[in-house]
C-alpha cells in the first residue's frame, strides 16, 4: 500500500524504495511496488509532456487531468493492496519488470 499511496507525495521515489527493500522478501509487495513504480514513471513523463504542451495551452487542460487520474488510480491501488488484492493500473507501461 505504501508504494501506491506514497507515490502521491513522493512520485516515483516511494515505489522505488519499497521495491528495493522488498524485492527479494515478498512477492506480493514486489509486484505491487513494480506496478506502482511503472505507473509513477509514466505519470511523471505525462506531467512533463503536459507541462511542455502548456506552451500551446492544451497542456493547461491536460496537466490537471493527468494529476487527478494519477491521484485516483493511486488511491484505488492502495485500497486494493490493503485488502490483499491484485491491482493493475488501467494505463501502464512496463519500464521495470
From TrEMBL:
InterPro entries: MamF_MmsF. Keywords: Membrane, Transmembrane, Transmembrane helix. The chain crosses the membrane at residues 6-22, 34-55, 61-81. It holds the Pfam family MamF_MmsF. It is a multi-pass membrane protein. The keyword Nucleotide-binding does not apply. It is found in: Membrane. This is DUF4870 domain-containing protein. It comes from Nocardia flavorosea.
Amino acid at each position: 500500500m505504501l508504494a501506491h499511496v506514497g507515490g502521491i507525495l513522493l512520485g516515483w521515489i516511494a515505489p522505488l524504495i519499497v521495491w528495493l527493500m522488498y524485492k527479494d522478501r515478498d512477492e506480493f509487495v514486489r509486484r505491487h511496488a513494480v506496478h506502482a513504480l511503472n505507473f509513477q514513471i509514466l505519470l511523471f513523463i505525462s506531467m512533463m509532456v503536459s507541462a511542455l504542451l502548456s506552451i500551446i495551452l492544451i497542456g493547461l487542460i491536460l496537466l490537471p487531468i493527468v494529476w487527478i487520474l494519477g491521484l485516483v488510480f493511486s488511491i484505488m491501488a492502495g485500497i486494493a493492496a490493503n485488502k490483499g488484492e491484485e491491482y493493475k493500473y488501467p494505463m501502464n507501461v512496463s519500464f521495470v519488470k
